[in-house]
Design a protein that fits this description.
Layout: H1 12-24, H2 29-45, H3 66-75
Length: 78
């Protein structure tokens, strides 16, 4: 369903850039605005990744000190 709207307080320069990109891509401004709104809403819904959500991995026997060994190679002996 399409709706006609009036939008106030739109940054003129940003709107001109949007309109120019829409024209380059053979889109009308309404379609470009719809795509921009969908993209913005989608980005808000994405779950933010947190390092604390990472789970440890078991790399098998003999790799218990792998992280320390890598550090020794990169940074030198302790």
């Amino acid at each position: 369903m399409k709706t006609q709207i009036t939008v106030k307080e739109v940054d003129k320069k940003i709107f001109q850039e949007l309109k120019a990109e829409a024209i380059k891509r053979k889109l009308n401004v309404g379609t470009a605005l719809t795509l921009a709104m969908q993209n913005w809403l989608s980005s808000l819904r994405k779950k933010k990744k947190d390092l604390l959500d990472l789970k440890p991995s078991d790399w098998g026997p003999g790799t218990e000190r792998l992280s320390e060994q890598i550090d020794e190679v990169i940074y030198g002996e302790k």
